[in-house]
Design a protein that fits this description.
The protein is built from 4 helices and 3 strands. About 40% of the residues lie in helices and about 20% in strands.
Length: about 110
């Protein structure tokens, strides 16, 4: 669920996205079914993709959604939903990538 954050002294406003994870039965170090939720900005996903690209050089990784946005559209509901949907697909594909899931980059 996206949340709009209004203007701050340092930014013109931004959107954060709720990321929820659920541990599977075979996830070491976690209780099966345990859940965790955090809010992340789009730039956090850009940083994740960049770190994975460096750490997993030579692997085919799922592409992250493009950052393309027209300044006036950043806070439009339709743009936010399109971006949310793209981020959800990206994370689902990443969760199926064995090397990415095992990387310490994804554990953060």
């Amino acid at each position: 669920m996206p949340a709009k954050h209004s203007n701050t002294p340092y930014t013109g406003g931004y959107v954060s996205y709720l990321v929820t994870t659920r541990a599977l039965a075979d996830t070491p170090g976690f209780t099966s079914g345990s859940q965790s939720a955090v809010r992340r900005r789009f730039n956090d996903f850009v940083a994740l993709a960049s770190a994975l690209k460096v750490r997993l050089r030579g692997y085919f990784l799922p592409p992250r959604p493009h950052k393309s946005a027209v300044e006036g559209q950043l806070m439009a509901d339709s743009f936010i939903e399109e971006r949310r949907s793209g981020l959800e697909r990206y994370l689902q594909r990443l969760a199926m990538h064995e090397a990415a899931v095992k990387s310490e980059v994804c554990a953060r």
